Amino acid sequence: MTSRLFRQDLGWAAFILVIAAVVGLVHHWALVKVAFQGELRPFLEKLRTQEREVRFQGVQTVSLEQAYDLHREGKALFVDARPPDEYAELHISGAVNLPPDDLEKGPESRLAGSAKDRDLVVYCGQANCDAALKVAEKLQSLGYTRVAAFLGGFRVWDEAGYPADTGK
Predict the structure, then answer these.
(1) Residues 75-92: pLDDT tens digits?
(2) Which among 84, 139, 158, 167 counts the fewest CB atoms within 10 Å?
(3) CB–CB of 134/122 below 8 Å?
(4) How many CB atoms lie within 10 A of CB 136?
């Protein structure tokens, strides 16, 4: 009797599992279809880009060339939004470290002496990182008026051979 009940329970569990899989496939058929076509990564990147554009629509961005020009001309303070250990290893010359987690402590200590209308360029590690956008958005909410996010990130900067520094 116990083994018969066990088999029945096992049968119902399998039935529920199959129904859940079918419902999941039907509900996410567009993604399943794209995955079978081998285009899942570009599709997800496109969705992510669209989501970033909506979420961070108030944040101005700059290209690698624009960021380099601002750095070369000394017109902007660069803000590194990466974790302190990555910043200490290598960062854009002259940048200050301000990860998103440190924003709650108040960025003013790291930006001491910087006027609220000074050009700030915030960057993180790579193009798919949102830390630069988060920090830029927070700085704007704190009254900094000339904030831009460099979306290429430090990796692109370093690969271009632009000035980098170690230590703090």
Answers:
(1) 899 999 999 999 999 999
(2) 167
(3) no
(4) 26
